[in-house]
Amino acid sequence: MRYADGGGLTAQARARREQVRMQAADLFAQGATDAEVAAEFRISRMSANRWRRTWQAGGRQALMSKGPGGEVCKLSGAQLEDLQNALDQGPAAYGWDEDQRWTLARIAELIRERFGVSYTVSGVCYLLHGLGWSGQAPTRRAVERDEEAIAAWRDEDWLEGKAQRRAWTPGSVSRMRPVKA
């Protein structure tokens, strides 16, 4: 499962795209060219040509939506809920005491042990994305963080290190011909 909403398109958006392809099929049946279909629906001529070839090979049925793309999720709804609860408990609950962070490899191992299902690291990333988890974003700031020191550095030292741009002057990339004044 790549995204929670089935590949980025809602059911209504897929239906709308399918309706456009059906209208294009009607135009093809009336003898419209690829260029005319492309102009009518504001698509590329390559897409219109691909739709025409699909329509010629399999008719209107071939242009119908095949549903959301992507791999089917290997876990059931109950298993996904169980995984969510397991992740909320934290890595220490499953033996990773030395580092209190979930990694994709750890989550893949947890899924394999709990549910007997194998996921690749990138597959775990897509699965978590679908569950609403984001990348590594700290939940809290470091205790040692000194906001006043950061503000002072930003106002004083950072501005000094930031060099001013030179004004534009004519130049030449050629070593043989110097710049004319």
From TrEMBL:
Domain Winged helix-turn helix, which positions? 98-156
Q: Which Pfam families match?
A: HTH_23 (PF13384), HTH_33 (PF13592)
**Superkingdom in the source lineage:** Bacteria
> InterPro entries this protein is in?
Homeodomain-like_sf, Winged_HTH_dom
Protein's recorded name? Transposase
Q: Which organism is it from?
A: Nonomuraea terrae
